[in-house]
Amino acid sequence: MTLAGKKVVVVGGSSGIGLATAELAKSEGADVVIASRSAAKLDPVAERLKVTAILADVTSDQSVGELFKRTGPVDHVVLTAAQLRTGPFKSVAMEDVRATMEGKFWGAWRVAREAGIRPGGSLTLVTGFLSVRPRPNSAIISAANGALESLARALALELAPVRVNAVSPGVIDTPIRAAMPEAARKEMLAKTAAALPVGRIGMAEDIAQQIVSFMNNGFATGAIVYIDGGALVN
Predict the structure, then answer these.
(1) Of which family is this protein a member (predicted)?
(2) 234 lies in some domain
């Protein structure tokens, strides 16, 4: 078990990619802490996985600070938490634009500043391939993802010997898409799968594998890996 004896904190670990990462890290022997701002999601997951749960809101300096006071020194930190709000560039509310940056970019900034990661440990940020393949009505998400990828490279220098990397997923079938009408969701996922070289939609477990790989690979830092089923070359 490659993570035996290591403490792993997954911020956003109650669902989706974060949950898959927590499950995989736990299976590899890690002492896992999951953090989320939703107790309703967090507690059942913690009980099922037999991991520690801590309520935390990445939009709050105090909350993030308290999280890492409670965890103490850790070996690996993963950040998947984000509340994304978007819309057409000319009409999307500035409140939504600011909220997206607050949760996705500034949330990562807070976590990186407060986490006490041991030398040789790692911080992995989860971005999204809209950073390099934008689409209409998603400018703020593209901008936030691009900023996060730049931040990961910069922090690889500033936080060394802690290693800092980013995983940039393509279209992944996670609970974040549950807000879509079911018929529309299935149609969108089917069309996307048909257009990809791999012929399927990504799953949270696909991204978790890359995140855990970053934890285990001591030579990886400042790297941005796009896990998108071939979307960028299609």
Answers:
(1) Belongs to the short-chain dehydrogenases/reductases (SDR) family.
(2) no
